[in-house]
Amino acid sequence: MIKLFLAAERRVSSAMMVLACLLMALAAVLGFYQVITRFVFSEPSTWSEVGVRMTLIWMVMLGTVAAFRQGALVSVDLMFRLSKGTWRRILHTLITTVTIAFLAVIVWFGAEIAWRVRHQELAGLEMISIAWGYLALPVGGFFSIIAVLANHFDPRHMELDTAL
């Protein structure tokens, strides 16, 4: 069952990383468009700044999925480095539990705020609800929970390799 979960998570995390990279590229294109319209044509675009902001929000929330999967969980590095055996398993479980609780709060309140603002429109993009921006919180949080669980069952601690 865990192998099936990890195989599905691998596909989901890969898809989230690809989407995050595409959103970063889109944000760069929109930012370039904003600079060109503002400084070359002296007619700033009203929608591109909002578009950059929205793509960056989604990029970060989807990119955290890959970060959590690689073991970039909130932890006390020194304690984790010095711990061995049972204490290390307890610490790893505690870190996983606290991280999932934090992400669950993000999912819950992100969904709640997205629902509350669903009738408001984005300034500059009047046809798009501001809820699409807030929806990045529960979506990213949900997929991050999956990545945290996958990291618990198949630990990767790559952040410790690059730490000083």
3D structure, described in words:
By secondary structure, this protein is mostly helical. The chain has seven helices and two strands; from the N terminus they run ααααββααα. It has a two-stranded antiparallel sheet with strand order 1-2. α1 packs antiparallel against α2 and α1 packs antiparallel against α6. The longest helix has 39 residues. The relative contact order is 0.16.
In short:
With 164 residues, the protein is mainly α.
How would you sum up the global shape? elongated
The chain-level mean pLDDT equals 89
- Class by helix and strand content? mainly alpha
Main β-sheet: number of strands, strand sense, barrel status?
2 strands, antiparallel
As residue ranges, the low-confidence spans are none
**Radius of gyration in whole Å, from Cα?**
19 Å
Record field, number of beta strands: 2
Query: Counting H and I runs of at least 4 residues, what is the number of helices?
Result: 7
Strand order of the largest sheet: 1-2
Short descriptors:
mainly alpha; 77% helix; elongated
SSE inventory with pairings:
Elements lengths: L1 H39 L7 H22 L7 H6 L2 H32 L4 E2 L2 E5 L1 H4 L1 H18 L4 H5 L2
Antiparallel strand pairs: 1-2
Helix pairs in contact: 1-2, 1-6, 2-6, 4-6
